[in-house]
TrEMBL record:
<protein>
    <submittedName>
        <fullName>Transcriptional regulator, BadM/Rrf2 family</fullName>
    </submittedName>
</protein>
<dbReference type="InterPro" id="IPR036390">
    <property type="entry name" value="WH_DNA-bd_sf"/>
</dbReference>
<dbReference type="InterPro" id="IPR036388">
    <property type="entry name" value="WH-like_DNA-bd_sf"/>
</dbReference>
<dbReference type="GO" id="GO:0005829">
    <property type="term" value="C:cytosol"/>
</dbReference>
<dbReference type="Pfam" id="PF02082">
    <property type="entry name" value="Rrf2"/>
</dbReference>
<dbReference type="InterPro" id="IPR000944">
    <property type="entry name" value="Tscrpt_reg_Rrf2"/>
</dbReference>
<dbReference type="GO" id="GO:0003700">
    <property type="term" value="F:DNA-binding transcription factor activity"/>
</dbReference>
């Protein structure tokens, strides 16, 4: 709806990583398979998140990606700022170059308070909170309910 597919994949991947033990690197292809996302596209997104200081990237046999900080330290707004850019909170909903109280578009008065609520919501949701909901089994991370959870159980029982 308001988040790009890039941002949706980024959030899904980071929630997936937050369900893993701290410091464990996850391969791009493992996440792409679990999340049913295109691996090449996901790799580009993960590199962008590395440049945004949310992830570490490791090369080699034990390579992959892992969170730089614990999941309780990363909120969704941090991810959105990286993937959507600063325009997410600043741009006009109708695409006008200048839109403010002084030079408002026809949607400004109605959209501005909604946008502020969306920002507050994104700031209040941490990866740890969302990962816990997925791990509980009550919520899903992909269109394939339980896919991520089953793969984690299978891996932990090996």
């Amino acid at each position: 709806m308001i988040l790009s597919r890039t941002t949706q994949y980024a959030i899904q991947a980071l929630i997936y990583m937050a369900t893993q033990p701290p410091g464990v690197a996850v391969l791009n292809r493992t996440m792409a398979e679990s999340l049913r996302s295109p691996p090449t596209y996901l790799a580009k997104i993960l590199q962008e998140l590395c440049r945004g200081d949310l992830l570490y990237s490791f090369r080699g046999k034990q390579g992959g990606f892992c969170l730089r900080e614990r999941g309780d330290k990363i909120n969704l707004m941090q991810i959105v700022r990286i993937t959507e850019g600063p325009g997410f909170t600043e741009d006009c909903v109708l695409g006008l170059k200048v839109c403010s109280e002084k030079t408002a578009c026809p949607m400004h008065a109605k959209w501005w308070p909604i946008k502020q609520e969306i920002v507050k919501l994104l700031q209040s949701q941490t990866l740890e909170m969302l990962a816990a909901r997925v791990v509980s089994g009550k919520y899903q991370l992909t269109d394939f309910p339980g896919a991520v959870l089953h793969e984690q159980r299978d891996a932990s029982s090996s």
